[in-house]
Amino acid sequence: MLKDLVTYIAKSLVDKPDEVSITEIEGEHTSVLELRVAKEDLGKVIGKQGRTARAIRTILAAASSKAQKRTVLEILD
Predict the structure, then answer these.
(1) Is the pLDDT of residue 66 over 90?
(2) Which among 10, 14, 37, 63 counts the fewest CB atoms within 10 Å?
């Protein structure tokens, strides 16, 4: 569910939505979502001074707290 949420948000932001990929690494109490986008779209996902990335992480934290699990978003280049 959280993976789909981040995928939807990322694809809405970028110019090349086909190149958006997310890998989920499950832990016992924590999940890590690794987000990869095209090089030219990296700035759109991060935003000015990281504001967009922070907003995505805030939404993810709110959604994952409902599931009583911690989820971390890593944006890879």
Answers:
(1) no
(2) 63
* Interval 5-15 mean pLDDT: 94
Please give the C-alpha separations between residue 22 and each of 4, 25, 35, 56, in angstroms, as whole numbers.
9, 10, 5, 14
Average confidence (pLDDT) over 16-26? 93
Kindly report the three-state secondary structure assignment for every residue of the chain: CHHHHHHHHHHHHCCCHHHCEEEEEECCCEEEEEEECCHHHHHHHHCHHHHHHHHHHHHHHHHHHHCCCEEEEEEEC
50: left (phi over 0), alpha (psi -120 to 50) or beta: left
Pairing of β 70-76 and β 30-36: parallel
Which residues, 6 or more positions from 25, have their beta carbon under 8 angstroms from its beta carbon?
31, 32, 33, 34
